[in-house]
Amino acid sequence: MKKGDIPSHVAVIMDGNRRWAKNKSLPRSEGHRRGAEVIEPLMDAAMDLGIKVVSLYAFSTENWMRPRTEIASLWKLLDYFFKAKIDVITSKGVRIKHSGLDAMLPASTYETIARAVDATRHNRRLILNFCVNYGGQQEIVHAVNSWLETRKGGEKISTGKLERNLFTAELPPVDLMIRTGGECRISNFLIWQIAYAELLFMDVLWPDFSPRHFYKSIYDYQQRERRFGGI
Predict the structure, then answer these.
(1) Residue 126: Cβ-neighbour burial (10 angstroms; 0-12, 13-18, 19+)
(2) Would you say residue 230 lies in a domain?
């Protein structure tokens, strides 16, 4: 692996929790619980490689269509994860960021995320960007509306002005997007930020994803020639 060719920003669509549980005749909640356990080893592997940002698709705006019991279990799991892992995350120098719409989030989940963001705000080793109640199209609409609120006269919007109003305004563009679970689609995730990203689709279900899979993903990324529209 070439140390000098490491992506700055890796985005991950953590797909396959429910199928993993079904394959093992377990409840969906157990698949999500096992999937949450993968995050810390992934975080450690990213820091080992010197990656600066990892964005995780934790809950999409479309996930509200799932059964209420499953949604409730996801909120409980998210609350538990931040409360159980915050000391470890802080000690490792990881900063938590939230990208997504605050509206509709349960009060307890909103408060838990806000506390994690505040507690880690000075950390610089890695940004772990949790995309919760997030949708790429919705983010762009939100960014345009935010810009319109401060628009002056007949000022026209530009890519730079829009980017400054995205949830990810402070983050670099995505270099590599990984999707587990065997599906080959991006599912409305960071659709502005992946304009020139390399896309990698893996068959492994998310609960089975290991640091070995992550290192292999980075190796595959390094074999590609990124032209950014040039020759």
Answers:
(1) buried
(2) no
